[in-house]
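Subject: Protein entry, chain in single-letter code together with its fold tokens

Area: Proteins and the way their chains fold up in space.

Attached in line: The record itself begins immediately under this heading.
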Amino acid sequence: MNGALRAREMKNLFLQVGLVILKPMRFLFAFMVSFAALAAPRPNVVLVMADDQGWGQMGYYNHPVLKTPHLDAMARAGLRFDRFYAGGPVCSPTRATVLTGRTHDRTGVFDHGYALRSQEKTLAQAMKKAGYGTGHFGKWHLNGLRGPGVPILKDDTHGPGGVGFDMWVSVTNFFERDPLMSRRGKFEDFKGDSSEIVVDEALKFITAKVKEKQPFFTVLWYGTPHSPWVAAEVDKKPFTKLSAKAQEHYGELVAMDRSIGTLRRGLRKLGVEQNTLLWFTSDNGGLPGFDPDTTGGLRGYKSSMYEGGLRVPAIIEWPKVITKPRITKYPAGAVDIFPTIAQAVGLPASSMLQPQDGVSLVPLLTREIGARKKPLIFSSRDRLAVIDNEYKLISLPNKRGVRLELYNLTKDTAETTNIFEKNPKVAQHLKRKMEDINASIEASVAGKDYPEGKVKQPQPPRIFWNTVDAYKPFFPEWSKRPEYGAWLKRRLK
């Protein structure tokens, strides 16, 4: 008995000693894991967005006349989305969604030309706080100013500098060749294609950050292929059989695609392409009135709640993570950009204002993840749409109240057959979701999401820039410029 007792005592002693040793070892291991995570280089992030490029305007969709070799190469190297959705059917709303992770009505950007509320938490602010160099290049259109793009004023608190961008070379709205832009409030004339200009400026910024050994968050928002269309003669040559308007339009897309090649080569030259998350998309669906068509056979165009107005091209390239390129049919959208980057970079949850309408796509970068758990929602001009995987419910106002339309996007991509009456169970399920979402959006519009519980006043008015006193001294000079002359003449009558 004494021998057995001594054996048990020795066993217990060994166990106790082992636990004493294992506890600090576990702590040390956990510390080492945490340190390794902190020490691992955080990814750089580059967000690129076309202006009015339709879903079908990509070479990889076998467009009948347009070739996009550089975007095609990016798609072959990364994750290509076949079902990616803008934040809204027009430009400013999507830009607000990208920067906030929220459907645009929540942010005060109800339509094109509305200013983003200063109470919103932006992706640029979060990245800056996390130690990133932040730069914006190109179209802004989130400061409440309408009309052809003009350089942003230095003291515009609703410009890029007011929402977290350290460096910016930007204009208020659409812009074409030889643009007049603002470098942190200093007006500068540029020569050449606008897409190539913004890429060149972005690469200067990225180069500086690489030399400083600072991670970078760079946003490039093209003015292409938004009207008015002005392309170089060389870029119009492939389209001589098209209308004059279409030649300019498609010529702009040729230049934009070439600038994508410049951007990708620049990242490789700097040695940062492996750990740079490069994301390309468009701000809304394609434009009507073009032959060949812009939307790849989808119903509707820009401004529409049908697929042609909302579904856009999208590609993510991140060689360090996306090692097996593929095409996904997972329904995703601009609303997912903020939460995806937040997870990829390790931003705290507090960096995002709630409610968030998107989901992180980080798991999708390496594998398919099944059905989407959170519906995609759209609210624009008293119209609502909800996409829940294969089904889409649209609410359209009419004289009797609203018209509800239900489509199975898997079987009916072109939205030709309204199946609302034939699928009451699905219809009622999505209708309830739509009602809940609408109530949530109404609370956000009233400012209930903000710490103050209300919208601060004054909210910047939605105005044309010719009414802004600070711009008026430039009118004599700008009246001689082709992009402003005729417009100013009409506005100043």
Notes: Residues 1-11, 13-39 have pLDDT under 50 and may be disordered.
